[in-house]
Amino acid sequence: MTGPAGPGSLTVVGLGPGDKQLRTPAADAALAAATDIVGYQTYLDLAGPFRAEQRVHVSDNREEIARARHAFALAAGGAAVAVVSSGDPGVFAMAAAVLEALEAADDPAWHQVALRILPGVSAAQAAAALAGAPLGHDFCALSLSDNLKPWAEIERRLALVCEADLVIALYNPRSKARPDQFGRALALLRGRRAPDTVVVLGRDVGRLDEQLTITTLAALSPEQVDMRTVVIIGSSRTRRIARPDGREWVYTPRSYPG
Ligand code: SAH
């Protein structure tokens, strides 16, 4: 164990989509070993319950770098800190913010902190598994949030990945603060992919209100999508097959016709 005088540890923990069964044993062990847990309230709720002696530090979701700096300061003081993220911490989440804070840090103690990043099941993977295997061939992940990058860049990337015929997993698709952007993204996609392109909506995957919707690009309406949804847009090769119970599987075959 690291004493309070020496540098401590900082573990960035991926919690998976919600269901504790989808969380890795390594993540569980890091949470159990932490003296201090840092995160946004929703993720702390997913990660808990904690023991009485564990200190819980709630922070605002938008303040990623501030949260990372706070975590480093605690760890540099000797604490065993866990920073929690939903899904995978390296997918539109805390791991990059933690490394950004480290790169900018002058304090040598921060660089002595034992840093680890523990992966988790990302929302697109969890939603894909419910639907079948829509990510079975080449795919990409895009965040539609323009908090950290300009909207024009998002549209440019969408157009380019359409050209590459990749399956697209869209994160942060539509928030109350930017209700119209998903409609713009949808219009762009409709101009570049066939109307019957398969779309999978996973909402609250691995959580109490889990909902899976299989639809098409033509039938999709922006109102079906919010910040608790991950949207998977099929490629030209993504297919649906009937299941005996009336539902469907969605998959993207791995082989190309020769
Ligand atoms: N690190 C997370 C993603 C964070 S970005 C991960 O790897 O899953 C936040 C976005 O992820 C949300 O807007 C939503 O698009 C998606 N998301 C996260 N958890 C989800 C869940 N349980 N069900 C559906 N989408 C989810």
Q: What's this entry about, in short?
A:
By secondary structure, this protein is α/β, with parallel strands linked by helices. About 30% of the residues lie in helices and about 25% in strands. Strand 7, helix 7 (about 150-165) and strand 8 (about 165-170) form a beta-alpha-beta unit.
Describe the fold and architecture.
A five-stranded parallel sheet has the order 3-2-4-1-5, sandwiched between helices. Helix 3 packs across helix 4. The protein has eight helices and 13 strands. A hairpin with a 7-residue loop joins strand 9 and strand 10. With 258 residues, the chain is α/β, with parallel strands linked by helices. It has two domains: 113 residues, Cobalt-precorrin-4 Transmethylase, domain 1, CATH 3.40.1010; 128 residues, Tetrapyrrole methylase, C-terminal domain (Methyltransferase, Cobalt-precorrin-4 Transmethylase, Domain 2, 2-Layer Sandwich). The N and C termini lie far apart (58 Å). The mean pLDDT is 94. It is elongated and about 60 Å long. The structure holds S-adenosyl-L-homocysteine. S-adenosyl-L-homocysteine binds next to strand 9 and strand 11.
Bound small molecules, by name, code or SMILES, are:
S-adenosyl-L-homocysteine
Q: For the CA atoms, what is the radius of gyration?
A: 20 Å
The fourth-level CATH homologous superfamily of the largest domain is Tetrapyrrole methylase, C-terminal domain
Corresponding CATH architecture of the largest domain: 2-Layer Sandwich
The computed structural class is alpha/beta
How many H/I helical runs? 8
What can be said about the biggest beta sheet?
Answer: 5 strands, parallel
Helix share, percent? 25-40%
Tell me what portion of residues adopts beta-strand conformation: 15-25%
Tally of extended strands?
Answer: 13
And the CATH topology of the largest domain? Methyltransferase, Cobalt-precorrin-4 Transmethylase, Domain 2
| Major sheet: arrangement of strands | 3-2-4-1-5
Q: Stretches where pLDDT falls below 50 for ≥5 residues?
A: none
Mean pLDDT: 94
> Please, how many domains?
2
CATH C-level name of the largest domain: Alpha Beta
Shape: elongated
Written as H for each helix and E for each strand, in order along the chain, the element string is EHEHEHEHHEHEEHEHEEEEE
